[in-house]
Amino acid sequence: MRNLDITTLRSFLAVAQSGGVTRASGFLNLTQSAVSMQLKRLEEMLDLQLLDRSGRGVSLTASGEQLLGYARRMVDLNDEIYARLTDQAFEGEVLLGVPHDIVYPVIPQVLQRMGAAYPRVRVQLVSSYTSSLLEQYRRGEIDVILTTEGGLRTGGETLAEVPLRWIGAPGGIAWKQRPLRLAYCRYCTFRNGALRRLDELSIAWEMAVDSESDRTIEATVSADLAITSMLEGHAPPHLVHIDPVGSLPDLGIININLYGSTARREVVEELKTMIRQGFSVL
């Protein structure tokens, strides 16, 4: 009788969902070699090649695609059995606040992992601006927040330092026009710093769009009617980084910071650990 190992299936799922062994190892809190060995063991057990390693990344073979659905159901069922038949010390709700522009790709995977580890805990995602999240956290309304800031406040930790980049439409010319047309949300953390740097270089600008909607900003920029700024690697696929070759100011580095309360300590600390692991492999 041949039995599949849930641990190897969990590693296979993590690699398939994250697109690589490096990211998967971070989510699983294992070494890359341990994950690779588990994948090799699974392939040997099934006598099938599940991963195509010929390109830069890792992709699934036809056999791997076929296994994916089964593996997900088996791992989910394993976690459900464990959760239902063992004592769950934690239940209730934990609020996680994250700025709109850094929700992807880490946070959905963190929510999935928290759901498996703490099925009776509801992690409520609050997506807002850094200034609003900091105020809600200060009032004790949110348990854990991520922020995008130029520095670090007391009680926080920096997970990543990311360049802030000018963003425009593919092949666009809006960045060349003067006055420079800008599109920003009213409460965007990056807005005042960008305006200050433009003023320091005496670059004339005008606010083409002043909105509370991120979608409005994206639509305006994608139409090449204005430019904005976003963290490198976090722009939507229909927008691109602008290389202004000295005609626009450098926007510097932004910290992605983590702040967490001490309430419900174990579950909150586990949530913070998962977030750290997610950002460590970006």
Task: Provide the descriptors you would attach to this structure in a database record.
41% helix; 11 strands; D-Maltodextrin-Binding Protein, domain 2; Arc Repressor Mutant, subunit A; two-stranded antiparallel sheet; 9 helices; 282 residues; single chain; 7-stranded mixed beta sheet; 23% strand
3D structure, described in words:
The chain is an alpha/beta fold. It folds into two domains: 6-85, Winged helix-like DNA-binding domain superfamily/Winged helix DNA-binding domain (Arc Repressor Mutant, subunit A), CATH 1.10.10; 92-282, D-Maltodextrin-Binding Protein, domain 2 (3-Layer(aba) Sandwich), CATH 3.40.190.290. It has nine helices and eleven strands. The chain has helices at 6-18, 21-28, 32-46, 62-85, 106-117, 130-138, 191-200, 214-222, 265-280; strands at residues 51-52, 59-60, 92-99, 121-128, 144-149, 157-168, 180-185, 205-211, 228-231, 240-241, 253-260. The strands form three sheets. Strands 3, 4, 5, 6, 9, 10 and 11 form a seven-stranded mixed sheet that branches. Strand 3 (92-99), helix 5 and strand 4 (121-128) form a beta-alpha-beta unit. Helix 1 (6-18) crosses helix 2, helix 1 crosses helix 3 (32-46) and helix 1 crosses helix 4. The protein is globular. The relative contact order is 0.14. The model has no long low-confidence stretch (mean pLDDT 90).
Number of E-type strands? 11
What is the CA–CA distance across the termini?
40 Å
H/E element string?
HHHEEHEHEHEEEHEHEEEH
Mind describing the biggest β-sheet? 7 strands, mixed
The radius of gyration is: 22 Å
Q: Proportion of β residues? A: 15-25%
Oligomer: single chain
Give the CATH topology of the largest domain. Answer: D-Maltodextrin-Binding Protein, domain 2
Residue runs with pLDDT of under 50 for 5 or more positions: none
Text of the CATH class of the largest domain = Alpha Beta
> Which secondary-structure class do the elements indicate?
alpha/beta
From the spread of the alpha carbons, the general shape counts as globular
Helical proportion, percent range: 40-55%
